[in-house]
Design a protein that fits this description.
Structural class: mainly beta
Signal peptide: 1-23
Number of helices: 4
CATH architecture of the largest domain: Sandwich
Largest sheet: 5 strands, antiparallel
Distance between the termini: 92 Å
Organism: Bacteroides reticulotermitis
Pfam family, one: Mfa2
Protein name: Major fimbrial subunit protein N-terminal domain-containing protein
Order of helices and strands: HEHEEEEHHEEEEEEEEEEEEEEEEEE
CATH class of the largest domain: Mainly Beta
Strand content: 35-45%
InterPro entries: FimB/Mfa2/Mfa3 (IPR014941)
Helix content: 10-25%
Number of domains: 2
Mean pLDDT: 80
Shape: elongated
């Protein structure tokens, strides 16, 4: 009889330990015992916020997509990954996911660099994902072939045990786009030629995820964006030179570096009446206090019109969230007040 009692207690103890171990594991991962698994549909908008987008097809293309669902305490609930070398189809792209009910933080990573694939596959918490950095060497988006753009986003959503509505998520580009138009003022008789454009003081690395700035003071580089030799800058819109200096990582001046010294600028060399003249054209952001800050923000489109006047340049800025549609607000070749 004593032997039977001993075996019974040992089995009971083992079952109890298994129960408490499972409960502890769920608690450490942020899962409350009353939470239930729920099948949900994710509507993922590729490179836009559910509105028309004027980006190119290549700027919207997604060949790999990773979706994380994190618990409120930051631990991973579920991760899903999909890839298609020709690009994911559908906008939104629909993905199925099974998660625990409750508040969730969804993090999306698209077009991930191969250098980070193994790391991204093993992410177990939100803060490890936020700590990851990417480098310009990870991508080919500034090559003539125009490689894929990195995209990310972070969205919070409450998932109920009887959740039926799709969860809408939007990918945003993790870089900024630049465009510059150069033209002579209609009243300027000078012969003007564009010699070159160089991007100066742009970071060669960035955080993968948004809202987590990186100190880039020691990683600023310059690169030649355009070299048009003796291209002539005309005096009518038809002769306007439209250039895309490149895609840039975010750069918040004043965060880890001197504001005036390390601002990102488009250094433009023009030949005016036979003399080369260099101009540093900053990339501005208009803050809520209406002050100009020389910041480069991810998922923003910087469109500049440079009008060459008599001995001076006039620069007009149209800066917008990349997903919005804002037309040019200036007549080319005509002097207007700077924005």
């Amino acid at each position: 009889m004593k032997r039977i009692i001993y075996i019974y207690l040992r089995k009971l103890t083992a079952i109890s330990c298994l129960f408490f171990a499972t409960a502890c594991e769920q608690q450490s991962a942020g899962v409350a015992t009353e939470e239930q698994t729920v099948d949900i549909n994710l509507n993922i908008f590729l490179g836009l916020k559910a509105v028309p987008d004027n980006g190119t097809e290549q700027e919207r293309k997604v060949t790999s997509l990773r979706v994380y669902a994190f618990h409120p305490n930051g631990y991973l609930d579920k991760m899903e990954y999909v890839e298609n070398a020709t690009g994911l189809t559908g906008n939104p792209y629909v993905m199925d996911m099974t998660v625990f009910s409750g508040q969730k933080t969804f993090c999306l990573v698209a077009n991930e660099p191969s250098r980070l694939t193994s790391v991204l596959s093993s992410i177990k918490n939100h803060w490890d994902l936020q700590a990851l950095t990417v480098q310009t060497s990870d991508f080919t988006f500034n090559d003539p072939a125009q490689g894929l753009l990195p995209m990310t986003s972070t969205t919070s959503a409450a998932i109920t045990s009887n959740h039926t509505a799709p969860v809408n998520l939007s990918l945003e580009r993790a870089v900024a786009k630049t465009e510059i138009k150069i033209i002579k003022d209609k009243d300027n008789p000078d012969v003007v030629k564009l010699k070159s454009i160089q991007v100066r003081n742009t970071p060669d690395k960035s955080r993968l995820m948004e809202n987590n700035l990186l100190d880039v003071s020691s990683s600023l580089i310059n690169f030649a964006a355009q070299d048009h030799g003796s291209a002539i800058v005309g005096s009518t819109p038809a002769d306007t030179l439209t250039l895309h200096p490149g895609y840039l990582f975010e750069h918040h001046t004043g965060v880890g570096d001197p504001i005036a010294l390390n601002s990102t600028v488009l250094y433009t060399v023009l030949n005016i009446k036979g003399t080369d003249m260099g101009y540093s054209i900053p990339l501005h952001t208009i803050a809520s206090d209406a002050q100009k800050h020389n910041n480069v923000l991810r998922n923003h489109y910087y469109r500049l019109i440079v009008t060459v006047g008599d001995g001076a340049l006039e620069v007009d800025y149209t800066i917008r969230d990349w997903d919005d549609e804002t037309p040019w607000d200036k007549e080319l070749g005509k002097k207007t007040k700077n924005n």
